[in-house]
């Protein structure tokens, strides 16, 4: 028999909350319908049905976007209605007759003075609780949630609660402790693009990071996600074309030992395996050839460079010849043999980065392994089919973090079957793209947008970001600004 | 798990394993997970792992993969050390195919290719 529970979310990143809980349900083998009556994201409360208190605890234990979960007792539009419903279950009320207890009033969209809260709590005195009140370590904690609605709620904010929930607190999530632990404010080594603690943790949940799994970030940067995935039990490793980011030998916060400083700070060296410098386009993974069908990585979690704060780069030559660069004699030796030789790089367009990433994931992930990554989109033009697809990968979640004229979306995909050579015949990128493409492999476009999709909302994102997202077909659009 | 990926260096018998030399190593304790090791077993090229371990002065791995590898705790413990605990702090990895030297600095291998190798 199922029991009703009330989930109290933090009212932030609302488009991520159902996806996060679905991932955690999957991780714990819990069957739960989180879409019943299409959840209202403007409310921080959600009623769900679960099989047991144990399931409720497990479901939210690792959650970052849930605050706590309660055993649901009743709800009402008024306190009178709420009290009537609570009184209809006298057997349950009697269960807590002897326990020490505490009441909390939590208000969304409105406010209560301490006196008002106390008065409201006292109105629950009809309950048969005879145990002592204990504000510090009560046996039972009862929650009163008043929802006044918010500006974006249906009907807006109101002066009286629209709905009042009552429940018995079961468990708190790890939200508070985890965000506190990983906050960038306390982190030793940071870069300009370090992912914030909250979303790094949500990403680890989306990817089902857990003990005994292998996590890889091909754009590791300063390593935010390798930390949070390791916190949840995965062995983690990363790579980046820019070794200075990994080692922390240039720019911001120079000389504090790079990612290693963070590994030591969070005491995660027992799960973080290491980092390597290379271009993901020219990667040395032996498994890329050997195990491209069955894969060997359990989760790929990454924030690919958008080209806004940090432009994506790949190895290559913009102009000149090989002789000019590699074989030129510098200080008596061939250039490429010098100790501080750094090969030339060229721009790597966001659109190409993402398509290459999908192809890489389709090969390297194990079946049921997950790819979790960010993609920026122009709000006005975004359509669902802008999100690149691959026949071996299934879209699990697409959560939006809006910034007005643009958004970034956290995409979660799952490998549903082994990679196959035949995938190339099913999907193609737009043929018009191939001329100017900066993709790793131009010959076989195995993944990409659905056929004939003219222009995804993340194309030339950097240029459009700096031109304030004036429509591409508008005569005012500056040609290729910012490149 | 890393092979030489320079253009034209595609003889699988030569571009792997990379030969480690001039190294300093350290051991960092890693969390034990037997299931993980067992799952990795079919992905390992045993001879390459064995010869590299010997070169690094690590004894304890058998020359051939034991038939009871999945249940042999002593073996799995040795494998755990080699795969997850031994880190090369400084050193060189040289390709036996094209002689490209990949340096390891501060525990981070630099696998970038020169421009004529891509």
Q: Largest interface, by Cβ-Cβ below 8 angstroms: which chains and how many residues each? A: A-B, 43 and 33 residues
Q: Decide which structural class fits the backbone of chain A.
A: alpha/beta
Q: Give the low-confidence spans of chain A.
A: 425-435, 442-447, 472-483
- What value does the Rg of chain B take, in angstroms? 15 Å
Count the strands of chain B? 4
How many individual helices of chain B?
Answer: 3
Residue runs with pLDDT of under 50 for 5 or more positions of chain B? none
**Can you name the CATH architecture of chain B?**
Single Sheet
CATH topology term of chain B: N-terminal domain of TfIIb
N-end to C-end Cα span of chain A: 60 Å
**For the residues shown, what is the average pLDDT of chain B?**
90
What is the global morphology of chain A?
Answer: elongated
Which structural class is indicated by helix and strand composition of chain B?
alpha+beta
Query: Mean pLDDT of chain A, nearest integer?
Result: 86
Q: Helical percent range of chain A?
A: 10-25%
The main pleated sheet of chain A reads as: 7 strands, mixed
Oligomer: heterodimer
Characterise this structure.
The complex is a heterodimer of chains A (483) and B (118). Helices cover 24% and strands 24% of the residues of chain A. Chain A contains 15 helices and 17 strands. Chain A has helices at residues 17-27, 53-61, 79-87, 90-95, 114-122, 175-182, 197-206, 224-231, 243-247, 258-265, 287-290, 322-325, 350-364, 423-426, 461-466, and strands at residues 3-9, 45-50, 66-76, 101-108, 140-147, 163-172, 214-217, 235-240, 272-277, 297-302, 313-315, 329-330, 333-334, 345-347, 365-378, 393-402, 406-415. In chain A, helix 7 (197-206) packs across helix 8. Chain A is elongated, with a radius of gyration of 26 Å. Chain B has 118 residues and is α+β, with helices and mostly antiparallel strands. A 4-stranded antiparallel β-sheet of chain B has the order 1-2-3-4. Chain B is globular, with a radius of gyration of 15 Å. The relative contact order of chain B is 0.27. The chains are: A alpha/beta (483), B alpha+beta (118). The interface between A and B is large, with 43 and 33 residues.
């Amino acid at each position: 028999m199922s029991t009703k529970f009330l989930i109290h979310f933090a009212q932030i990143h609302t488009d991520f909350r159902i996806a996060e809980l679905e991932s955690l349900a999957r991780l714990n083998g819990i069957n739960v319908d989180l879409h019943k009556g299409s959840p209202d994201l403007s409310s921080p409360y959600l009623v769900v049905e679960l099989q047991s208190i144990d399931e409720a605890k497990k479901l939210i234990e690792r959650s970052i976007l849930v605050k706590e979960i309660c055993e649901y007792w009743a709800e009402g539009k008024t306190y009178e209605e709420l009290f009537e419903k609570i009184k209809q279950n006298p057997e349950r009320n009697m269960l807590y007759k002897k326990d020490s207890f505490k009441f909390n009033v939590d208000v969304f969209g409105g406010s209560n003075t301490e006196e008002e809260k106390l008065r409201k709590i006292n109105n629950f005195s009809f309950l048969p609780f005879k145990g002592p009140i204990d504000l510090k370590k009560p046996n039972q904690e009862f929650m009163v949630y008043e929802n006044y609605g918010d500006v974006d709620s249906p009907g807006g904010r109101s002066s009286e609660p629209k709905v009042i929930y009552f429940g018995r607190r079961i468990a708190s999530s790890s939200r508070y402790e985890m965000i506190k632990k990983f906050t960038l404010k306390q982190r030793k080594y940071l870069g300009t693009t370090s992912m914030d603690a909250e979303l790094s943790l949500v990403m680890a949940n989306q990817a089902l990071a857990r003990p005994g799994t292998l996590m890889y970030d091909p754009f590791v940067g300063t390593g935010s996600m390798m930390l949070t995935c390791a916190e949840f039990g995965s062995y983690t490793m990363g790579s980046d074309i820019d070794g200075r980011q990994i080692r922390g030998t240039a720019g911001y916060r120079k000389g504090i030992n790079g990612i290693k400083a963070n590994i030591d700070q969070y005491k995660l060296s027992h799960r973080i395996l290491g980092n390597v410098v290379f271009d993901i386009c020219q990667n040395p993974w032996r498994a890329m050839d050997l195990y491209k069908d069955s894969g060997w990585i359990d989760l790929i979690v990454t924030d690919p460079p958008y080209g806004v704060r940090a432009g994506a780069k790949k190895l290559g030559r913009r102009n000149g010849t090989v002789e000019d660069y590699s074989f030129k004699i510098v200080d008596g030796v061939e250039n490429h043999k010098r100790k501080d030789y750094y090969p030339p790089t060229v721009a790597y367009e966001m659109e190409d980065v993402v398509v290459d990433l999908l192809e890489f994931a389709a090969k390297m992930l194990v079946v049921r392994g997950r790819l979790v990554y960010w993609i920026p989109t122009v709000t006005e033009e975004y359509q669902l089919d802008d999100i690149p697809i691959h026949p071996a990968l299934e879209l699990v979640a697409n959560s939006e973090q809006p910034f007005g004229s643009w958004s970034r979306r956290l995409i979660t995909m799952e490998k549903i079957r082994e990679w196959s050579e035949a995938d190339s015949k099913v999907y193609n990128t737009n043929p018009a793209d191939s001329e100017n493409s900066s993709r790793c492999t131009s010959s076989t476009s195995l993944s990409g947008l659905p056929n004939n999709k003219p222009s995804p909302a993340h194309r030339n994102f950097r240029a459009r970001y700096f031109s304030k997202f004036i429509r591409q077909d508008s005569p005012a659009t500056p040609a290729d600004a910012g490149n | 798990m890393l092979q030489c990926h320079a253009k034209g260096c595609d003889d699988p018998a030569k571009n792997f394993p990379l030969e480690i030399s001039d190294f300093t190593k350290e051991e960092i304790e890693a969390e034990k997970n037997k299931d993980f090791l067992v799952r990795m077993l079919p992905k390992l090229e045993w001879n390459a792992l064995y010869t590299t371990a010997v070169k690094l002065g690590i004894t304890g791995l058998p020359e051939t993969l034991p038939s009871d590898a999945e249940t042999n705790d002593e073996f799995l413990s040795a494998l755990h050390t080699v795969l997850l605990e031994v880190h090369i702090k400084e050193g060189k990895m040289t390709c036996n195919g094209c002689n490209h030297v990949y340096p390891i600095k501060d525990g981070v291998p630099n696998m970038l290719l020169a421009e004529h190798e891509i």
